[in-house]
Amino acid sequence: MTTKSALAISTVANISTTRRELIKNMSLGTGALTLGVALPGCSTLIGNTIRDDGSWEANGWLTIGSDDQVVFTLDRVEMGQGTYTGLTTLIAEELDIAPSDISVVFAPANKQYRNPDYGIQITGGSNSLSSSWVPLREIGAAAKQMLLMAASEVFQLPLDQFVASEGRVVHQGSGKSLRYGGLASIAAKQDVPNEVGLKKPSDFKYIGKQNQRLDSHLKVSGKANFGIDSQQKDMLYAIIVRAPYIGASVSSYNGDEVSALAGVTHVLEVSHGIAIVAQSYWKARKAQEKLIVTWLRNEEAPISTSQIFEQYKQHAIEDSGNVVRDDGDVDEVFEGSSSVLEVEYELPFLAHATMEPMNCVAHVQSDRADIWTSTQGPDLAQVAVAKVTDLSLNEVFIHNQFIGGGFGRRLSQDFVGEAAEISYQTGQVIKLVWSREDDTRNDLYRPASYHKMRAVVDSKTGKAKAWDHQIVCPKIMDWYVWDAAPATFPWAPKFMYSMLGHAGLLTEGSPMTPADTSPYEGAQGLPYNIPSVRVRHTKSDAGVPVSYWRSVGHSHNAFVTECFIDELATELGKDGYLYRRELLSNSPRMLAVLDAAAEKAGWGTQTKDGVYQGIAAHESFGSYVAQVVELKLDGNEIEVLRVVSAIDCGTVVNPDVVNMQMESCVIFGLTAALYGEITIADGRVEQSNFHDYQMLRMNQTPSIETVFIESVEAPSGVGEPGLPPLAPAMAGALFSATGKRHRRLPFDVS
Fold this sequence. Notes:
Elements: E1 6-10, E2 25-28, E3 32-35, E4 48-50, E5 56-58, E6 62-65, E7 70-74, H1 83-95, E8 102-106, H2 128-132, H3 135-155, E9 162-165, E10 168-171, E11 177-179, H4 180-187, H5 216-220, E12 235-241, E13 249-253, H6 255-259, E14 264-270, E15 273-278, H7 281-288, E16 293-296, H8 305-318, E17 322-327, H9 330-335, E18 340-347, E19 359-364, E20 369-373, H10 378-388, E21 396-400, H11 414-426, E22 429-433, H12 436-441, E23 449-458, E24 463-473, H13 477-488, H14 497-506, E25 532-539, H15 554-571, H16 576-583, H17 588-601, E26 612-620, E27 623-634, E28 637-648, H18 655-674, E29 680-681, E30 684-685, E31 703-708, H19 726-738
Helix pairs in contact: 1-3, 3-4, 10-11, 10-13, 13-14, 15-19
């Protein structure tokens, strides 16, 4: 075997070790320096394999080639939230190379790329940067140290005489330098450093600077490949005609008649309806017009939105709920008080409405499946394919692409399973594309929720003495665990998939299956100083498919808690901003963003006639955000004029990306607050496209300003925290404008 010079370094740990133990193994190969990290629980090396030509191939994070090409394998997907730039910047900073000089490729499905916070390979929860903050910098620092050691060996001079700068190692005395690529094969032979020092913030060259997004040119030039751009040889196009009723199944259909149409190659029944395969997408859509399906309805499926909320309210009466926070003595305070404020809030189902509809290209063969798609969960996609084929997980290869909007929708893999099922049955390369109508009517929605709020207020002392919050909604994990559990245990044979799902449900809250906090996140951590606080969740699932939606439980709990704080302030005759200040003595970071937003927006100063302000603050995904909304009413129309946001997200890696995400959250949140509502009638989702599930238009977008709070804390989330405070801040402004409380979304001022 010919030995070529490359280095593969992987961290391998047993369950008792720390989460990201750096660099445990070194092997030699050719012309490249490659570093990788594997996660706890792996009993063998992951990702380092020997090719037939004797070179090393490492499924790690960083490769430095002899041609000076630096390649970073991005283990989190890029769906507009900035990981492509942000995570590359972490590597670049410690490697002392400009982020723009690094090539980025998307990671395949592989257990070494699992998200350490979740145990599966997903991008979500706004944790891409926080979970990578130390590990990726350590990888860059280790590579740089080994390059310095290589230069020391070449020059036969002490190590401390060398520095790294812009892709070269420089001898400080003579100014002579060597390229990283020229040193790669020698660096590969160096001892792996046991420890590496990371830069101090004062030494940062790239972190915290106004860096241009690395994916911008690819996108504006049309070179970025999204899932919907995927083209493969001999590809056929497929659509699926799905049941119009939730939970319905196929009874009969005129498949032979439709199969005879020009350009149609297959008409077949699949798990989610009837698939039509044709030579082009539009031929498949035209054939759909001739398809007649008789559907068998599920008598237990939900019938209407009103019945769902009736169920929620009945369950709230019958089941007081699982207590998730219990401070002080809530019952005693309520029993001894006659001054009780009690209100109810309702929030609707919401669709994700990603700009890129669901799509997938699948080529299923006897011994492997290749999947080209845009997914937030590559290993979950493997499970979806394995379920509908004879293949095992290690025979499914995911080729991930740029994502045209995820928002949690692409954490679910129904569209991947559908494409694979059609390819498996037909033996063809299949490109499945959902229409906007498919997407709106067959989403896995943000759960609707019902909230009962009670508080004891003492007008004499000007304080709230007790707070009781009952949340009624389903658990997302009840729907999600069926794919997540098999992905967590990839060694399990397929006959165990269902058992793993059941085990996941039974063991929720244990080390095997973490507790599903989505119903009460954002409510449990109420930051205000109220002596007695109780938060409880009553589970009620009406059978509407649900999944994760941008900011998840925070999206409804922030609305409820912040609106109720405003109501308490009014009861006590206090200004909403000043009342919050009184209650935040134990939360300095929240207080800081609240003050910053109020100051920037000129809270309490004279605004133009007919312009009203509202304020709200919320912590989610480790970040603190306060927002002030300014709006006016034009008849029954709400016009939002200005949104001022203050955010403390720890160390800011890329200010431009944070600005973009705050703006994105405001637009996304405004859309939901003004228009977002999925309703059900006669067992059907009523909305179908953007005419009845509206998006915010460009001319409706307000002025958006963002204030950063300087921090030395590690980075925290930015993709979602800007959304939760938006709607309650709007509600506060609407109360000032109308004198009426708005306790449900979307807002209706008619």
